[in-house]
Amino acid sequence: MHRMTWLAVFIVTVLVDSAGGASEQELRVGVSAVDITPPVGYRMSGYFIERVGTAVHDPLYAKALVLAQGDTRAVLVVCDLVGVPADVSSRARTAIAAKTGIPVAHIAVTATHTHTGPLYFGAMRQSLHDLAVAKDGKDPRESIDYPATLAEKIAEAAVRAAASARPATLDAGSVRQEPTLSFNRRYLMKDGSVKTNPPQKPGLADIVRPVGPIDPDVGVVLVRDGDGDKVTAGLTVFAMHQDTTGGTEFSADFAYYLERSLREAFGPDFISIFGIGTCGDINHCDLSAERRRKAAEIGPMLAATVRAAVPKLRRVEAVELAVRSTTVDVPLQSYPADRVEQAKKDLPLIGKGQLPFLKEVEAYKIVDLRQRKGPTTPLEVQAIRISREVAIVTLPGEIFVEFGLAIKRASPFKTTLIIELANDNPAYIPTKQAFAEGGYETVNSRIAPGGGEMLTEAAIELLKSLGGN
Ligand SMILES: [Zn+2]
Hints:
By secondary structure, the chain is of the alpha+beta class. It has one domain (12-466). Helices cover 29% and strands 28% of the residues. The protein is built from eleven helices and 23 strands. The longest helix is centred in the N-terminal third of the chain and has 18 residues, at 146-163. The radius of gyration is 21 Å and the shape is globular. Zinc ion (ZN) binds next to loops.
């Protein structure tokens, strides 16, 4: 049994505030997209085997949305990537701040969690890279310094969006997706255990029920030019894993098809920004169905929901832009030295069918944890108030849906959009209950039980401090 220790210390270290105040001042919005597709031949992330990108199905983008009112500005960058590590996001945010004057705390750099993007950070990337260098003296899979290029391109997207900001009108709201698209992927089994993604068949007979909920809300913010004639861009937030493509071609997953479908409605220049909701335990696998839906079906389904929502969205009449950010020192899991040594020895065996899957997951986790130099890790939570009715929250990691639902319930805002995988990639953020139940996400989590509850509390406090109606 491994020993886990943690400090139950909850410290709010930074509280950066800039109340917009000047609600009379007009809203300006800038949007831009910069291609971040890696070269063909670069490794792909998403699974615990070495996979190499053989082609580009659709380009990956860093898409930036800049909101500005008076002197207050907020930046949301969404990247078609599995995650964004802290060193890349901090480099990008520092560059954006230096070039635009927008405070770092007002900038969120997030990922869409596509499982067909590059593998460019973490213990698995390091291990495969080291093996390649040991064999050939160099790593033929990494023909460019992708993290450095990425940080520059994220900054470029934000700087361009800031420079292009012009008067705009927003429509916002939240609508319900038919609950046949997303599923809680953790199931109580007849033997009393909880399993993530149990085998579809013949295991079905062993399943009692899913142990958690889904979040069927689709949050939408549409950007209209000037006084509202033309829709130029849109933010869509939905909680479901972007792992519906597979294969070896780089792709933004269903977010690509969402944009393609929305362009049929809003024109070929429309930019769709997909924010991934709190989907740590949510995916598209319907265990009662014969087959799983793929990205090409899911994107248009989500787009149909967004299009049907358009007449129901509310015009954001009184913009009161404000941003707050807080950093929570979240307790980490801890392993004794002998377990760390064993994990390091196990790394070269991963993906070769020599270790049980969860042992592979745990070995990478243990090695990854060393980078964070415990016992706690600083994780940032941000809240952007657009008006007294609409706010956006960003959180790091793959947040369990229960937390997203709790934040929405407690939020004083009528519409609260919650986007995960922001600014850092501490893997899964399960609930205390899920840690007690076990399963894949708890093994693939760096934080100690209680960390997710702390982030949730911090998000709720930020929202309350920004007020609602
Ligand atoms: Zn995931």
